[in-house]
Each structure stands twice: as C-alpha cells, then as structure tokens.
Amino acid sequence: MSAEDTLFQRFGKEFPKGAVLCHEGEPGKEMFVIQSGRVTISKRVRDVEKVLAILGPGEFFGEMAIISNKPRNATATVHDDARLLVIDPKTFEGMIRGNSEIAVRMIKKLAERLSEADSQIENLLLSDPVSRVVQHILQVCQTRGRPLEEGVEIDLPLRELPGQISVGEPAIRLAVNRMERAGLLERSGDRVTVYDTARLQDFLQYLEMKWKFGEL
Ligand code: CMP
Prior knowledge:
The chain is of the alpha+beta class. The chain has two domains: about 5-100, Sandwich (Jelly Rolls); about 125-215, Arc Repressor Mutant, subunit A (Orthogonal Bundle). The chain has helices at about 5-10, 65-70, 90-100, 100-125, 130-145, 160-165, 170-180, 195-215, and strands at about 10-15, 20, 30-45, 50-55, 60, 75-85, 145-150, 150-155, 185-190, 190-195. The longest helix is centred in the middle third of the chain and has 26 residues, at about 100-125. The mean pLDDT is about 95.
C-alpha cells in the first residue's frame, strides 16, 4: 500500500461536488489537505460571493482557524468531487512539530497565498476590465504556469473568472479574443498559451497609459 493510501485510510474522506466544508464566521476544528478534486475558497461581500481561490491536489486549507483560534475567515466548497485528508488540531500540531519538512512546505505555501492575495488587491484596484483580465492571466502564468517551448501554458476556465476578478464573462471573452487576435496568446478550450509574458506585460502597461491619458 502506498504512503498516500495509508494516509487516506487514517484521515481520508470523500466529498461530493457542492459540499460545504467550512463556513465563514463559524468556529472550526479541522484542517484539510486535498488529495484529488478541487475546492473553492470564497467570501461573501455585500451579498456577492467573491472567489478568493480555487485549490487543487496537494494544497491545504482550514489551518487558519486552528492556528489562530478564530472563526473561519472564508467558506470552502467542493468544486469537483474531492478526496480530502481531514486533520484534527492535535494531529496537525504533531505533524508540524515532528517534521520540519512539512513546516517549511507550509510556510512556502502560505507565502504564495499572501503573494496571490496581494495580486488580487492589485487586480481589484485596476479600473479597466481588460486590464484586470490581462493582469490575472499574468499572475496565473507566474504562479501556476507550465513552461513550454512556445511560451507558458495555463489552465484558464473563463466561466470561473467572473467571481475572481469581478468582470462579466462576455467582457472576459472579448478581452481574451482581442489578445488572441493580437498574437499575444492562443486559447484551446480551458487552456491558454501565452507566447511571451513580457509582451503581455507591455500590453498591460499600454492599457494603463490609455486609461490614464485617454486616446492620444
Ligand atoms: P480557515 O479560516 O480556518 O477556514 C477558511 C480557509 O480558507 C482558511 O482557513 C484558509 O485556509 C483558506 N483561505 C483563506 N483565504 C484564502 C486565500 N486568499 N487563498 C487561499 N486560501 C484561503
């Protein structure tokens, strides 16, 4: 039996799509590690559900309430049927204290999460919807991009973006089509290949200048 199967036997549970694993504002006594499937982390702001992140295999959540002894700061919902390790506070503490490799990996993930949250703040400060789409694509390239010979490949399901960048899906499609026509990227289903991130960065700067100074 693989180490993963042993862990699943001890801590594993399967959850169907739509199951709510923790609710924002409620106390929480478990943390979760995703073995398969995806989980959406969201926050409710003035009756609108804002997606903070969609987490996949190898990622964890629910640690904040345990570490800080505070209510859940977001809601976690199963996005695609998931296999999760459900870990109680005592086991979690034992894992961190007993294995510095786990502690270091967690610190790295938390630093990535902070950097993604900073990018989201930057994104929401951009007033122009096209700039938000471009900045989001650049950020995904940086954090989850797969280098290819012809550029960087990312997963970009357009239907999932509105909740993340607060831009409507038609406007997102128009922006992506425009970039495709300009030869900045290529889209194939839920995948996008960005040929040259530096050129996309230049395009973002051009949009910002246009927004600031108007048409010249
Ligand atoms: P906790 O507050 O216990 O429950 C909700 C969890 O969502 C939280 O712990 C974090 O693990 C996770 N979470 C909160 N904000 C983010 C974010 N910006 N990106 C990814 N995960 C987050």
